[in-house]
Amino acid sequence: MGKGNVIQRSAASRAANAAAMLRGEKPVQPAPEPPRALVRTRATEEPTPEQIGHFVLGPVRTEKGQVIGRAYRRQPYFETLAKMPLRLSDQKGPRLISPDQLRALRYYRANHELTVVSETRCALNQERGSGEAIGLPITLLSARGVKECEVGLGALVHTLRAVALDDKSFAQVAMERWGSRDRQRIVIGSGKKKPRIAKEIVPKSSAHPGIIRQEFLDALKIMTSTTARLAADGA
Questions:
Q1: Is 208 helix (H, G, I), strand (E, B) or coil?
Q2: Which of 29, 72, 73, 92 is most buried, most CB within 10 Å of its CB?
Q3: Where does the record place the region Disordered (predicted)?
Q4: Helix, strand, coil percentages in the chain from 3-state DSSP, rounded to 5
Q5: Residues 54 and 48 sit within 8 Å (Cβ to Cβ)
Q6: Assign residue 225 a region: left if phi > 0, alpha if psi is -120 to 50, beta otherwise?
Q7: For residue 72, what is the enclosing H or E element?
Q8: What is the C-alpha separation between 119 and 115, in angstroms, rounded?
């Protein structure tokens, strides 16, 4: 089997998993390849203490699914938002992101990540007589999937992309749009640690992150409805 065909099939598998995720089904695990010699890997590099909460440790696989090591991968910011309460006063109440909305975000993110996967050989190695259907490269199909998710969002699409795809917090998006200011606060010491003054950069107005939050929720409501329609149409 040619290398181009292997890449094409693995890319098609990733696309099928993205569609399964949209329908709420478990992704299909690729068939394991025959045992091979152990691949030596470098020691796993850990994120800095400031970043550790944004990364999760998971397996690194080859195109055929063989585990060749483990690495830290950035966890989407919306996974953290999904655990937060909709209202701070009601910690046991509904979450900020519902299960259906989380499923839509995962589908949206999965399609986006496929658009940045290099499929050059897969796209160019379209040999006739191979017995496989010739169609659009998976990156183009996934880009179309991203666009379909964004139908009807208008200007809200920029907020959705920043949070769902770029992992920016509401405060970060607010500072990019309206600017920031320096703020000092007193950190109370404990034990032998003395109190200190901490400097931080915050949005110009405390109301700005709330505006971004509402824009994100409005965009998410529209996109969830759109992805539900795509699932019903068999996308």
A1: helix
A2: 72
A3: 15-35
A4: 45, 15, 40
A5: no
A6: alpha
A7: strand 67-74
A8: 9
